[in-house]
Amino acid sequence: MHARPSAGPRTASIGPGTAALAARTGSPLFTWPALVPYALLVAAWAAVARPSLGHAAAHAGSPKGRA
User: Fold this and answer.
1) In contact, 24 and 34? CB cutoff 8 Å
2) 49 domain-assigned
């Protein structure tokens, strides 16, 4: 049975796809395309967080009892 080469500390937490390929090769050719989905993910988080935080702020304060 052959030993599988270690992925190393840089790739231990990276999932499959372009980001993993960029981490394994170190090539800018794969690094920049890997940033695009990450930027879209951050933008989606921001788009959801803004109204959620606004809703939480509007309803913050003393709790109202429900009868």
Assistant:
1) no
2) yes
CA dist 27 and 7 (Å) reads 16
pLDDT, tens digit, 9 for 90 and up, residues 18-50: 777 777 887 777 777 778 888 999 999 999 999
- Ramachandran region, residue 20 (left: φ > 0; alpha: ψ -120 to 50; beta: rest): alpha
* Residue whose structure tokens are 């003393």: 62
Query: 19 lies in a domain?
Result: no
Contact 31, 19 (CB under 8 A): no
Structure confidence at residue 60 as a pLDDT band (50, 70, 90)? confident
Q: Does 43 reside within a domain?
A: yes
Q: Which residues contact 37 (CB under 8 A, 6 or more apart)?
A: 17, 18
